[in-house]
């Protein structure tokens, strides 16, 4: 599949994952949603396959602990 399809799949997978990981924590769910969206917006113009592969999302763990 094309790059856009892969990126969209990752975006959706991250949102599904956050609903499982932060199931009963509305504050963490909201923080993770906002951060996922923010990071994807920040990197939406990235075109390098190498840079796209390097993108990681450790902010999910970081925001989980900051939301507690």
From TrEMBL:
Location relative to the cell: Mitochondrion matrix
* Protein keywords: Chaperone, Mitochondrion
What are the recorded Gene Ontology BP terms? mitochondrial respiratory chain complex III assembly
Sorted alphabetically, which InterPro entries does this protein's record hold?
Answer: Complex1_LYR_dom (IPR008011), Complex1_LYR_LYRM7 (IPR045298), MZM1/LYRM7 (IPR050435)
Domain of life (superkingdom): Eukaryota
Chief localisation class: mitochondrion
Sample GO molecular function, one term: protein folding chaperone
Q: Any transmembrane segments, and where? A: none
Q: Which residues form the Complex 1 LYR protein domain?
A: 7-54
Cellular component (GO) terms are: mitochondrial matrix
Its quaternary structure?
A: Interacts with UQCRFS1.
Q: Which function does this protein serve? A: Assembly factor required for Rieske Fe-S protein UQCRFS1 incorporation into the cytochrome b-c1 (CIII) complex. Functions as a chaperone, binding to this subunit within the mitochondrial matrix and stabilizing it prior to its translocation and insertion into the late CIII dimeric intermediate within the mitochondrial inner membrane.
Q: Which family does it belong to?
A: Belongs to the complex I LYR family.
- Protein name, entry field: Complex III assembly factor LYRM7
The organism named in the record is Seriola dumerili (Greater amberjack)
